[in-house]
Amino acid sequence: MSQGTDEIRQIQGIMTLLLLASPQGKLHEVFNAALSASASQVETNVTALSDASADGIKGWLESILAQGGLTAEEQTLVDWQNNSENMNAALDELKAIQDKGNFKLTLQTK
């Protein structure tokens, strides 16, 4: 595999997921909000992912978003994901996209 091919496929996979997310859906809503959020303290909170298990990823994500100093936009994203109606709808949308395309995007360590 040539240099960057894996990263290109990652970009294309994310792009495809975004293209398949309904403009009226919760996935589109949260992705749009995340992309619109201004840079802040979150960027400095990111550490290397060392455990790619579901619990490890959960802890890693919490360490990024739970350290305080969030902008109002970022706090809105945290609040959005803590709303079960939002998350359940987004999960259904994501599963439908994954089923349609027969793919799954995952996080893994390098």
Set out the fold topology:
Layout: H1 5-20, H2 26-36, H3 42-45, H4 54-65, H5 72-82, H6 84-101
Helix pairs in contact: 2-5
Can you put this structure into words, describing what you see?
The protein starts with a helix and ends in a 9-residue tail after the last helix. The protein is built from six helices and no strands. By secondary structure, it is mainly alpha-helical. The chain is 65% helix and 0% strand.
List keywords for this structure.
single chain, 110 residues, 6 helices, globular
Question: What is the structure about, briefly put?
Answer:
The chain is an all-alpha fold. The chain is built from 6 helices and no strands.
- Span of the ends, CA to CA: 15 Å
Q: Count the strands?
A: 0
Largest sheet descriptor? none
Portion of residues in beta strands equals: under 5%
Query: Low-confidence runs (pLDDT<50, min 5 residues)?
Result: none
What structural category characterises the helix and strand content?
Answer: mainly alpha
- Residues in helices, as a percent range: 55-70%
Order of helices and strands: HHHHHH
Query: Measured on Cα atoms, how large is the radius of gyration?
Result: 15 Å
